[in-house]
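Action item from last week, closing it out:
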Amino acid sequence: MKRYRKFDIITNILVALLSLLVIIPIVTVLLGSLKTVNEAELVRFSLPAKPLWGNFAVAAKVGKLGRSFFNSMLIATVCCAVSLITASMAGFVMSRRKSRFNRALYIYFILGLIAPVNMVTVVQVMKSLGLLGTMSGYLLYYSASLLAFSVFMFYGYLASVPVSLDESAVLDGAGALRIYWQIILPLLKPILITLLFINFMNAWNEFIAPLYLVNNSRLWPMTLAVFNFIGMYRSEWNYIFADVILTCLPVVIVYLIGQKYIVKGMSAGAVKG
């Protein structure tokens, strides 16, 4: 028992030290957002002489975060809705109809988890379709990019849903769409909630894709707005820190709300592939 107790103490100390590597930079940025320009440029882990809450208002106004917030919310909401509905339908069909074609299609989706994205090709394809630099084009692209992981999770979760439910519904005269909407979809609630939070955070934090595909500053999400703001105010770190905090705040709130669902859904959805 004493050995196990010592091991637990050592493990807790190591975890606490590793946690500090993450917590200290975050707290430093938070404190820096409340400092003056001269204090913030030192980038020290110290309290501000006098907290300047007005830094957040300046960062939001100058960085045009209101418009960028709307763009990010639109992107995250639409991409989550499209990816979850289409991926759940695809996962349902592929998990229930065991054929070579569906197996090959599932493997094709899984390749999307490991194959790197060639942005040069994506740009050329979207340019030829007239979608480059448009919000609709970016929404289509990023909704598609979320499908691979979503299909993988739905497919694995549906393996734990008894096929007898489908068979009973068929005997009652239900068609495929009715089975999906009235029987399967309600049972997918745990994994739906999990993927909702994960896909929302991924869509909100995406930087590379909008950098290549959205060349209109009025359509920029908050990640690009921060990038542009840093270029404009590279010497005024207090405003940069405030801008970063405002950008990260929504996704932190979403994660804190959904962390228990994320862990539960990830363990359930990865049972079988």
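Closing note: The chain has two domains: 2-54, 64-269.
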